[in-house]
């Protein structure tokens, strides 16, 4: 197991230490060899993603077939849920000879996970090998699941860094983060924190307003990052504030890494114009099923064949297809033919492509939605993608807002939900919202959906300003 996974439960204690203590501990931690910090599997995963860029189509399938059979056999032999599902469908892992053969395997939904979590966990894996994670994803349906300790997180970091190299990343790069990080619960609080374990500057996306843009630029000038790691919405706000104030960005950047939200072409143009470098985007999710990233020379998203197996549903009326994925390497809780709820537009097969991998031209899921505080701050709903047990046993959650600084948190409870947990949920949300926001909790029997039936994170009649 990696040292990072062993220390993960102590992260909250580390965060409460004085700055001087965190800086000293973090500097010492960075001196440890990568193999110790991230475990013995990290380097192998990083090597594979670089090598995979030169694979032929046959080599890609050879690798994926091997990993699919490992995953499917694990599920059929040690996961009661899949054992029953496969038997009912007459499906066997031995029937996989070509990519199209996966269509014989039953699909998996978020509801399946909510209702059968214990039966989906491998019986041959010790409880100590499980790492519990939750996500609300892009749909507002909270889902809890298990990752494989010592494998899932090192794999994610190794493959992300391998992809990021196409966007300017390099080993030892200094990153400034403008994502869902809470630096202060006060609306007038501090905007930065320093992560000494990685030498990263953490900037609050909650306090980014025209009045404080000068503070952000001062902190960034002092830190001199090599790259920005951002929510696209946060980078766009900073770019627009810089331009509207008649300022110029002066720090030479290798690139801007844009994740967790959809990046549109007009937004990309603005960000690249202001910061003078490429805005590089990728697509993934907390379940660690599939991963896609833009190419070295094109903005198409290519699904990484070493990460997981991707399929696409039938096109809807807009020509968009749902992403369906099967995880690799997670022997604790495989996810097989998982319906992600995210939709993409496939690249025309006649177009030239950089890699012989499935490619899409547009990620339609993960829009940029904001709550508006009483002082005009924009609070991205992406930041409420909780990774602890805060939203466990809730079938759906949704924010409703009809005036700045005031919102209602609506939730649909499952049969196992304990109402005594409402206070901890309230505290988790309040920490994200800050002191210029009021909200109430409201239990409902259902939440508002899109015309296609998907849950919505936010229902709002408030127009943002600035």
Describe this structure in words.
The chain has 466 residues and is α/β, with parallel strands linked by helices. Among the domains are: 3-40, no CATH class; 372-460, 2-Layer Sandwich (GMP Synthetase, Chain A, domain 3), CATH 3.30.300. It contains 13 helices and 20 strands. The protein has helices spanning 3-7, 11-15, 19-30, 34-38, 42-51, 57-78, 80-89, 110-120, 152-164, 213-223, 232-244, 265-275, 422-433, and strands at 130-135, 143-148, 175-179, 192-195, 200-204, 227-230, 255-258, 279-283, 292-294, 301-303, 308-312, 321-327, 338-346, 359-363, 370-372, 378-380, 394-403, 406-413, 438-443, 458-460. Helix 5 (42-51) runs parallel beside helix 9 and helix 11 (232-244) crosses helix 12. It is globular. The mean pLDDT is 87.
Principal-axes geometry comes out as globular
What is the class of one domain in the CATH system?
A: Alpha Beta
Work out the strand percent.
15-25%
Low-confidence stretches: none
Strand neighbour order, sheet with most strands = 4-5-3-6-7-8-9-10-14-13-12-11
Structural class: alpha/beta
Q: Tally of extended strands? A: 20
Mean pLDDT: 87
Q: How is this fold's topology laid out?
A:
Blueprint (H helix, E strand, L loop, with lengths): L2 H5 L3 H5 L3 H12 L3 H5 L3 H10 L5 H22 L1 H10 L20 H11 L9 E6 L7 E6 L3 H13 L10 E5 L12 E4 L4 E5 L8 H11 L3 E4 L1 H13 L10 E4 L6 H11 L3 E5 L8 E3 L6 E3 L4 E5 L8 E7 L10 E9 L12 E5 L6 E3 L5 E3 L13 E10 L2 E8 L8 H12 L4 E6 L14 E3 L6
Parallel strand pairs: 3-5, 3-6, 6-7, 7-8, 17-20, 18-19
Antiparallel strand pairs: 1-2, 4-5, 8-9, 9-10, 10-14, 11-12, 12-13, 13-14, 15-16, 17-18
């Amino acid at each position: 197991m990696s040292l990072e996974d062993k220390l993960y439960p102590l992260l909250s204690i580390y965060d409460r230490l004085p700055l001087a203590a965190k800086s000293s501990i973090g500097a010492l931690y960075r001196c440890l060899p990568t193999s110790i910090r991230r475990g013995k599997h990290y380097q192998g995963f990083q090597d594979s993603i670089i090598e995979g860029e030169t694979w032929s189509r046959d080599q890609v399938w050879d690798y994926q077939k091997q990993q699919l059979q490992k995953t499917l056999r694990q599920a059929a032999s040690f996961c009661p849920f899949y054992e029953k599902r496969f038997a009912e469908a007459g499906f066997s892992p031995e029937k996989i000879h070509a990519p199209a053969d996966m269509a014989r395997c039953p699909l998996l939904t978020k509801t399946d996970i909510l209702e059968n979590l214990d039966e989906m966990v491998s019986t041959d894996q010790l409880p100590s090998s499980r790492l519990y994670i939750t996500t609300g994803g892009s749909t507002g349906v909270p889902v809890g699941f298990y990752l494989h300790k010592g494998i899932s997180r090192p794999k994610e970091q190794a493959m992300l860094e391998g992809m990021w190299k196409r966007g300017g990343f390099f080993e030892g790069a200094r990153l400034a983060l403008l994502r869902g990080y809470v630096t202060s619960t006060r609306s007038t609080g501090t905007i930065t924190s320093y992560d000494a374990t990685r030498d990263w500057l953490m900037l609050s996306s909650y306090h980014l307003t025209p009045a404080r843009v000068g503070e952000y630029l001062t902190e960034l000038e002092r830190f001199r990052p090599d790259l920005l790691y951002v929510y696209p919405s946060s980078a766009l706000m900073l770019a627009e504030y810089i331009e509207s104030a008649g300022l110029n960005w002066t720090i030479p950047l290798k690139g801007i890494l844009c994740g967790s939200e959809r990046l549109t072409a007009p937004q990309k143009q603005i960000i690249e114009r202001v910061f003078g470098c490429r805005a590089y985007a990728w697509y993934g999710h907390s379940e660690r099923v599939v991963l896609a990233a833009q190419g070295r020379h094109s903005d198409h998203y290519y699904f990484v064949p070493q990460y997981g197996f991707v399929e696409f549903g039938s096109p809807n009326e807009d020509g968009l297809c749902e992403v369906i994925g099967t995880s690799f390497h997670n022997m604790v809780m495989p996810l097989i033919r998982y319906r992600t709820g995210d939709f993409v537009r496939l690249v025309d097969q006649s177009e030239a492509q950089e890699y012989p991998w499935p490619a899409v031209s547009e990620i339609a899921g993960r829009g940029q939605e904001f709550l508006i505080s009483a002082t005009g701050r924009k609070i991205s709903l992406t930041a409420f993608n909780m990774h602890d047990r805060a939203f466990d046993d809730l079938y759906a959650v949704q924010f409703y807002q009809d005036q700045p600084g005031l919102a209602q948190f609506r939730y649909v409870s499952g049969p196992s939900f304990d109402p005594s947990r409402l206070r901890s949920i309230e505290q988790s949300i309040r920490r994200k919202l800050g002191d210029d926001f009021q909200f109430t909790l409201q239990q409902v029997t259902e939440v508002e959906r899109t015309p296609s039936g998907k849950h919505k994170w936010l229902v709002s009649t408030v127009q943002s300003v600035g």
